[in-house]
Write a structure and sequence with these properties.
The protein is mainly alpha-helical and 118 residues long. 68% of the residues lie in helices and 9% in strands.
Length: 118
């Protein structure tokens, strides 16, 4: 299971535990309330760990791209015909500034990273 799916499952569990906690509080069941508070704390801790792992992987991927020999912003014409560009440049990685990776790297324009000049 990848991190994105695991994170989604943890958020679903957290939501379920919060609903059950609210119902137990309405009933006044102290033992069940404490159990769900422990479950919520454990799930929140796991969510934070998964997010930290995602951030480390994203930073590592961004660093690998920054270490590539060549990078430049793509023109509108190149962006319009991305398939042709990717076929002509071996190893090209295109990063859009609105993706997680693009925001992490601080990009402002669509940028191409490649081992050789293109």
């Amino acid at each position: 299971m990848n991190l994105k799916q695991e994170l989604q499952q943890m958020h679903d569990k957290l939501d379920k535990f919060r609903r059950k906690l609210a119902a137990a509080e309405q009933r006044g069941d102290a033992a069940i309330v404490m159990q769900f508070k422990r479950e919520i704390a454990a799930t929140t801790k796991r969510i934070d760990a998964i997010k930290g792992q995602q951030n480390r992987l994203l930073g590592k991927e961004g660093q690998q791209l920054k270490d590539m020999a060549f990078r430049r912003e793509l023109t509108k014409a190149e962006q319009a015909d991305m398939g042709k560009l990717k076929k002509s440049v071996k190893g090209l990685v295109v990063v859009h500034p609105m993706t997680k990776l693009g925001r992490e790297m601080g990009l402002e324009k669509v940028t191409g990273f490649a081992p050789k000049a293109f």
